[in-house]
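YM 10:42: RNA polymerase sigma-B factor sequence, as discussed on the call
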Amino acid sequence: MTVIAPTATSADRAGELIAAMAALPVGHPSRRRLRDRVIEAWLPLARHLSSRYANRGEPRDDLYQVAVLGLIKAVDRFDAERGVDFAGFAIPTIVGELKRHFRDKTWSVRVPRRLQELRLAITGANNTLTHTLGRSPKVADIAGYLGISEDDVIEGLEGARAYNSTSLSTPTVEGGTELGDTLGGEDAGYELAELRIALGPAMAGLDEREQKIISLRFYGNLTQQQIAEQVGVSQMHVSRLLTRALIKLRQELGGADV
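YM 10:58: structure's back
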């Protein structure tokens, strides 16, 4: 991904500022002033990255402030001697800060505010009751403490599961596959199994000779000429009977490819 840092000055000037700041030792009188100028020059990068996370339930201004925080961290931690340009270091730092914000401050799945508030109440009750009871409280304990029904407590506990989710990029084992790799794909075998189940009643709708021809052709793998010799008709007649039987089967199976 290539991101051009739009700045109040030019991209080159922004690069010069960060290089000049990085060259100064910590505590140098000019470093603080240069630091402020560097942050200001790279603010458009923070705004650009924060805009990528818009429309996810968080105010744009809040996301921008989080991105700015990430930018400041990048400026303070940047080490030019590592051979990485500032943009290459700042981008993952800012994006990481934005992702951390969504992980720690928001719900992974949007749930009604009532459930969010209920979760907070249950968490508080659980902490209090654990201390007073000397054990983990049961659903009935929490319900009695909050003056709500046990069903409400269970609903709140279920809703709490939406607060955090596990990324599909999470490794299942160190250095191994990711969680998303373990998800099953579409298995054509299920559709084939359904067709086989439906084929029985469909075959029952054919007359005895049609059933025999279908069986010899598709289960016995015989040619039309071989079938003709067994049935005692011409190969052309077998072809017509086979075509008619397949049409009936398609109709019975709802147009499936037989």
